Predict the 3D structure of the following.
Amino acid sequence: MKQDVASLNRGRIELAERIEEPDQVPVYLWFESGFNASFAGMREREYHTNRASMLKAQVAVDRRFYKLPGVGPDFGIATWPSAFGCKIKWPEDGPPWVEEPLVRSAEDIERLDVPDPHKDGLMPLWLQTYEYMSKELRSDISYCLGGTLGPFDLASLIRGPTQFMIDLYRNPQLAHRLLELCTDTCVEWLRAHERIAGKLRRVFIGDDFPGFLSPDCFTKFVVPYTRRIFESFPISTRWYHCDGDFRLSTLALLKAIEIDVLCCFSPKVNIEKAKNLIGDSICLVGNVPPRDVLLRGTRSEVGYLCEKCIMKAAPGGGYVLSSGGVIDVGTPPENIDVMIRSSVAAGKYPVRTISEIPS
């Protein structure tokens, strides 16, 4: 691989974001603590509680995969609920997690305020780790900025996922009040990022639970809040991640949020149908199955699925090859290499037509 492969790949992703055709299909690698810590031979608890260990693990993964993944703070989804005071547990071999719900009544919500990213929970640790990594690497890692847990996921963790889903039907006023608070929190968190490195080039919202909602609930409880976050950063490219199993009727509602990129969506979502439905205005990033193919598959199976995704989603532009969710712990590096090579070998334009690839 050429030394400038990472910068070339980023440039191709920028073209794909605009529904254009770069000279070849770019690739997006999404690693988190599980893979990173395992790759470096350390426990996840050490990874999360020692910033030098976190940096060491990420640098090892970044170098192994041609600097495509990038480096940045990584404390998992507990970062946001911790700022409200949720009790967090720190397992030896897992990311920090919310131990129990915080909100049990409407009165509990009224006692909550939008957290201060510089004082509350894991948020200041995240920001301090960003400054530490930037200083140690002596390079610009601002590309890792602009990410937030989505308001629906945050509300679900604070309230408890099952109870919050019940609230949508039995107590929608409480659900909306909590979503308002969570949305304000996401906006303030992203503004803290801007105070560090200037205007955000991208805003990335990760919201998995909405993938289980009906179109009606998605319209009422997801669209307005997610759109408000994006509208608060008008010059940023809008990345949205949900690896829930979207219905096609719900998938079409992503246009109402006016996102630019649907990132690492569930492999259960038919990528050809997604391309036909929203691919004219939304860049698709995905969706090779991370468990059944990248983790458990042979190299030939990985290559076949990667080529199939490219041929079904790349024609017309607006496509980035990636996994359908985060890359799992224990995924063979050689399988990831196959995905990278597929973006080079099978991803040259003009690609073959969809009809040439068997279903």
Observations:
- The longest strand covers residues 283-288.
- Residues 30 and 230 are 22 Å apart (CA to CA).
- Strands lie at 27-28, 88-89, 97-98, 147-149, 202-206, 237-241, 261-263, 283-288, 319-323.
- The chain has one domain: 5-351.
